[in-house]
Amino acid sequence: MTHPTSPNTPDDFARSWDARYQGATAIPQPALVLRQWPHLLPAGGTALDLACGLGGNALWLAERGFRVSAWDLSPTAIARLREGARLRGLHLDARVRDLIAVPPSPESFDLILVAHFLDRDLAPSIAAALCPGGLLFYQTFARESRSSRGPTNPAYRLARNELITLFPDLTIRAYRAEGRLAAPESGLGDLALMVAQRI
């Protein structure tokens, strides 16, 4: 889930995303950052899909044996995700949660996935929520891009190399931000992707 605008309240923000999710017809594919580096996934443990939207990442991780928590501000998204998990026979903890007001607790997850969500002030809490050895898989839109996909407000897009600098206490294990040099068919032209580990 990406911040496309600056709503007046969390309720306004939730309503705007509820309206988008009500019109969605399919669970999205798992994030490119997961598909790029699946060999970096831990063998199992606890995983958080933060700002999960319709939950394509949460379902993908649950299918691989993780104990998944999935949080989003949108009640519609969480309801759709719960139904999707039920239909697939998967167990996960999907709940409505204001991530800014109630960030994850320290040392509570072996893996955290963040896709298309950017709140810079939340970065220290995300890093702290990793257990020792835990991995952060992060992707979102960059200001340097091949297309107009993603938010129009540059405040919700990453500056050059910014994703690395947001998590100075983590060890970078993989990073890609190819911008306009990316092959058009790769899907990388608008994104920055990173896997980082708490040592």
Automatic annotation (TrEMBL):
Domain Methyltransferase: 48-134
SUPFAM superfamilies hit by this protein: S-adenosyl-L-methionine-dependent methyltransferases
Assigned keywords, A-Z: Methyltransferase, S-adenosyl-L-methionine, Transferase
Database matches in InterPro entries: Methyltransf_25, SAM-dependent_MTases_sf
Entry's Gene Ontology BP terms: methylation
Tree of life domain: Bacteria
Pfam family, one: Methyltransf_25
One MF term in the entry's GO annotations: methyltransferase activity
PANTHER family named in the record: METHYLTRANSFERASE, UBIQUINONE BIOSYNTHESIS O-METHYLTRANSFERASE, MITOCHONDRIAL
Name of the molecule in the record: Methyltransferase domain-containing protein
Organism the protein comes from: Thiocapsa roseopersicina
